[in-house]
Known about the structure:
The chain is α/β, with parallel strands linked by helices. It is built from ten helices and 13 strands.
Amino acid sequence: MKNTPLKNILYNEETHRLNLAETKADELLSSLERPLSVILQITRNCHFNCEFCSEKEQMPDPSINELYTFEKHLDLVPRIFLSGGEPLTRRDFNDVVSVFSQKHILGLPTNAVASEANMEVIKTNGISVNVGLDGPRAITSRVRGDYDYIMRGIKGFMKNDIPFSLTAVVLRSTMDSVLFTCQMADALGAKKMKFVLPIPRGNALKLDKSEYISETEADILCEKILDAKAKFGWKTIYTFSIWNDKTNGYSILVYPNGKTYAWPALDYKDKVLLLGDLHTETIEEIWERYPFKFNHINKYLGNAVRVM
């Protein structure tokens, strides 16, 4: 177990999750001096061009020296997600991991396409993997990218005993496959299956408005998942992120250029709220002006998303 700044934050080596034992939101709010996690985009490059991608503006990758500066300013943040774009497109991914692996629990959102060359560094450093998979072949290949490449990566994680979760973006045109996707997650042995709604930003702005389902429709889907899980005995944990007052701004997102934002900031045009710059400011300074602390904390207490 890695050291973290709060004694009541425990890291479960099997599930690769932060566990907050007997902790209330108000208690955490008064004691935290920094966020529980930060999403750090180490690149904007990607193999795919997902229909719902929110991060299409290209930026230069941060150098290793810049990443050392970011890590210094993220000191004592328990968990860092090395995100993108597709983070595994970085040829120096091993060096990137070395910058952060000693002091932080690492997460990796990925399409798994370039995972084969990085299996050892992922496994050695206990990095929790989250793979984008939106359902059966026809749907995933239509909305995200090549299904077979993604599945090859997932099978590689399975072969190497690397725990993984899955994420699917739910559109109206993919709603009828959600329960099938739940079955896929259970059959593959995914620890968690995360469903999220698209953010109207980037490629998602090109989606037909009808593709955005309502919160009520999402709630109905959650009930169907809950009933099916009980009926079929699925072991996977299912979650559903619905963008509303509880999830507004609940993550802290760092762009490759160091600009740091609250995300998704639903009331702002670009769905992000600028908080500062990690080149020159510490995360404690940025946290001070972060207006969504309560939502960030509730995310980890399980009060922000539906859990099934």
